[in-house]
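Supplementary Methods, section 5.1.

A reviewer requested that the exact input to the structure prediction be made available. We therefore reproduce it here, unchanged from the version used in the analyses.
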Amino acid sequence: MITINKKKELLGHKAGIYAMCAEMEGIIYSGGVDKHVIRWDIQNDENSKIVIKSTEAIYSLYYYKDKNLMFIGTSSGKMHILDLFEKKEIKLLKSHTDKIFEFKVFASFILSVSADGHLGFTDLETLKTAYILKVSDQKIRSIDIKGNLAVIACGDSSIKVIDLSSRKELHSFVAHEKATNVVKFHPTENILLSGGWDAHLKLWDSNYELIKSIPAHNYAIYSLEFSPDKTLLASGSRDKSIKIWDVSSIEFPKSITYENLKGHQFSVNRLFWDELSGDLVSAGDDKKIMVWEIKNSKAPKSLGALVSD
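The structure derived from this sequence is encoded token-by-token as follows.
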């Protein structure tokens, strides 16, 4: 049985929030259309503060713990790199020409995907652009990595599979109507999950064949995130709702809405799970960040067992 408790609501942004990342347990960063990055102390609101004022809307954030660096992706495709020890910007890259939607680390690179349809490789030692790979003629909202493989969600409805070592496309397939917005490797099973403009949550096998298509939301799905213990999946949508899926009964989610739990009043743009506390953090167009305590008392069977039944 899944139980949900709203722990906290964080107010401070003046416009929609598109980006979040964690520094440590209880400390998160957020950015959005108001051009501010706010550092939040979830336990003590008095310690929360604006740490960066940008000249452009912020669409992505990534905290690189090894060097205490913050990567910031903006609406024009600029990548700001800040040294949080020195509290100053140490690099500005202009490898992209449109919104940077997400960052991921692979080997000695930080990868960036953009609305310009390109995948960028930035060297984490030199902080210089090493490669720029054209992946799509449409926007790229999401990337996930497993080993040397990357899966990339594209605005032309496709998912691209890239070998990151050779930087070659291995496979491409149509996943959703109009646009694929988010794609994730399952953390323990050989399964891929995706969400799209068509509001469907889809499961794909190791050959990228469709296993299941679920009409999960009423509007586009923007975010998919697995819980730290791998038993739950959260989906966030433009329909203002968050849904929590037990991987052993993926067809029967628990919903978080404004009506039932005072959830978001506008589009839910970003989700992440705090690794240590296990809490889910959500952000949306209503300028709010919400912290959710979610517990699953049911011992799940594997998702692989579910989809093979």
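The mean pLDDT is 94. These observations are discussed further in the main text.
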